[in-house]
Amino acid sequence: MKTRTRIAAITAAGIVTVGAFAGTFALANSSPPMFGPGPGPGNGPVTMPRGGPRDGGCLGVPGVVDPSGTLTETQRTALAANAEEEKLAHDLYTEFANRYELQVFDRIAASETTHLEAVRTLLTRYGITDPTANQAPGHFATPAVQATYDQLLAQGSASQDAALQVGKTVETTDISLLRESLNGLTAPDVQRVYGNLLTASQHHLAAFGRWSNR
């Protein structure tokens, strides 16, 4: 199954299997270790957006400073797909922030902006067409991603609790996709960004869980 189509399939499936995904990955509330290379470029301090993990903030994604490597065609496709997934998360959370008075959506949407910028930097570095370029909020180049966005937006528009559930679905899906994308990856710069995004998604998932239990 193509990566972009799989994103939509996993996300749609996640609507009814969030608990199963969360159990599979057994996410802890403490900060997990970074992925990527050991000491070297890119290992400097990262910043914490206002609010911190408890209120939806996460570890910032530093600039892409690690050396580039080689990507297979499958890995190039996955990088473009991850850009669309980051935009999907950003656009959904922005919509929910406008509908509900929960700071978690506003803060995580801001984080997703940084995440998408990091992925776009990699797309430029590797000469990969950015599928999110010139796409208005809520609009996507890939039909399957568009359908997933529309479905999740409708679900989250039903109530505040439903929107928080969508947030957990999106972050659980991101974790699954990033783990898969890291499999067999050797390019240091992409490893670093994916590792940071994985850590961020774990923080986001924990934050949505905390807000759901209030």
From TrEMBL:
Key words of the record: Signal
Signal peptide (from-to): 1-22
InterPro entries the record matches: DUF2202 (IPR019243), Ferritin-like (IPR012347), Ferritin-like_SF (IPR009078)
Family matches, as Pfam families: DUF2202 (PF09968)
CDD domains named among the record's database cross-references: Ferritin_like_AB2 (cd01048)
Domain called DUF2202: residue spans: 83-210
Keyword tRNA-binding among UniProt keywords: no
SUPFAM superfamilies, per the entry: Ferritin-like (SSF47240)
Protein name: DUF2202 domain-containing protein
